[in-house]
Amino acid sequence: MRRSALPAALLALAVAAVPASAATLHGKAGVAVAAPTTTQQVVTSFDGTKIFTTLFRPDGGAPAPLVLRTHGWGGTGETTLTGTAKKLVDAGYAVMTWDERGFGQSGGEVHIDNPLYEGKDASALIDWAVANKVVTVVDGDPVVGMTGGSYAGGIQTATAAFDSRIDAIAPEISWSDLRYSLDPGRVIKVGWVSLLYAAGNTALSGGITGATGPAGPQTGRYASDLDRAYLVGAATNEIDSDSNAFLAGSSLDHYDSTKKLLDVPTLVMNGSVDTLFNLADGYGIYQHAKKAGAPAKFIAFCGGHVSCPSTYTDAKDRAHLDDAILTWFQRYLKGDKTAKTGAPVEYRTNVGGVFHDADGFAPSNSTPLTGKVDGSLLSSAAPAQEALSSGGTGAVTTGAPSAAGDPRATTSTVTQATQDLDLVGLPVADLKVSGTGSSVHLFVKLVDRESGVVVNLQEAPMRVDGLSATPQAVHVRMPGVAYTLVKGHHLDVQVTTASSSYLNARVPAQVTVTGSVTVPSVPSGHAAK
Fold first, then answer.
1. What are 488-499's pLDDT values in tens digits?
2. Does the N-terminal peptide bond of residue 248 adopt cis geometry, omega within 30 degrees of 0?
């Protein structure tokens, strides 16, 4: 899938190349074979920001398809050739990593992978690679892909939607809409937000650890809108319109609304137990690519920002994802039509230790499981940072079942499995809420009763304002699931007014909640392909 190249951007590129390593390997019969080489460069971006990069070349000289690959939030680009990057170089790709603006040895303001800032930085790296004959160019168009996880996933959609030189992407554990990811149902995901804000602050270039290197000392800082969003949210218990607009600027959902489509082959990989960017986040990216008519694939694995629980059967997730990335790029960067990218959707659950093929998420042969909700709940006024006093990172990033008899929760049975059932897809809850008080935060979660766990550790929040005796209808968008309910186990739905992961309501309320939850399911391992 080739597209014509854009005119060269009018950027000033200040480049300082520093050789880091070079060697020669010996192949069969003593024939000399060039080994991968590593160099470090400083590229000056559109606004004068200096971006520190590392370039790994498979043979030290000849142009090759280029894969851009950066780091997670508050991290730095890889400077040693290991893991997925090594597999890519071994497969013949040049790989360029970099410290995103504000972090590591790069200067500038952090805008959370905004196309107008971090996206333009990535475009500057492509300009440099073309000018320095690093990348293969076909009919004037450089062959460029992108991969990486979390923050390194957000930069892929931010760049690919605006720079037509990107030919294929493979984002892991990333987002489609930061407004949903960080403020779902208008309830702030305080556990993750506070952890990330603090971690990023300590990692800013020129911060606590400082930054020295080829780029010289750099000053990194949060954009003022980012600081404002955090402070206003903590003070008011909600995201205001200005902060919402700031998050929209880093969201594929918003780009799409402005006709900046994700029209490149897109391999999306998200973790079922990832409570920062859940399966619904990744599936949103997949849907955008499909909408634009681009080849797309979605893989639901176990892991991400939350480690795969030890109770889940090992499925060698990392090796599976690496194989998928290499095959994807073999097909859409190298143009090898014999490369088989497989089913449009793959998922694995907590049992079996294998990935299943499916024709959709949910599979077309799925059957909805429907459970009724009917209960009265109390909501007590909670301090703004209640979640952060719960103890331990896990307590503020994952859901747990509500205790029996808790007046803040109600529990109903959805089903008892008569055979192993794969819960696969996007559950929804449609509720009617009435009561007294100005506002309430509700949290909906699916529970495997016999295992005593929340399904994939996920819960879905919803803020309901203007309570009265007249019920108001609310639709709750729940995180995606990939989970096996084994034969004999009960699936329950719990609705509660208390969470250790989200900001709780600050005013007392008493509410009645009725309605239903719907969960897509298929007999285990029998999804339509």
1. 999 999 999 999
2. no
Decide which of 3.30.2350.10, 3.30.300.160, 3.30.420.240, 3.40.50.1820 is the CATH code for 65-87+102-342. 3.40.50.1820
Cα separation, 94 vs 467, whole angstroms: 58
pTM exceeds cut of 0.90? yes
Residue 346 half-sphere exposure, CB side, CA atoms within 13 Å?
19
pLDDT number for residue 395:
63
Polymer length in residues for the chain: 529
Strand partners, 96: 55, 68
Check: CB of residue 19 under 8 Å from CB of residue 42: no
Q: Are 135 and 64 in contact (CB under 8 A)?
A: yes
pLDDT-wise least confident of 198-202, 273-277, 343-347, 453-457:
198-202
Q: Give one DSSP letter per residue of 381-409, joined into a string.
A: ---TTGGGGSSSTGGGTS--PPPTT-TTE
Q: Which residue in 162, 198, 250 sits closest to 396, CA to CA?
A: 198
Measured CA to CA, the distance from residue 71 to residue 182 in angstroms comes to 20
472-477 and 296-301 as β-strands: parallel, antiparallel, unpaired? Answer: unpaired
- Provide φ and ψ at 380, rounded to 5°: -95, 150
> What pLDDT is attached to residue 456?
98
CA distances from 123 to 61, 94, 130, 173, 257 (A): 22, 16, 11, 22, 22
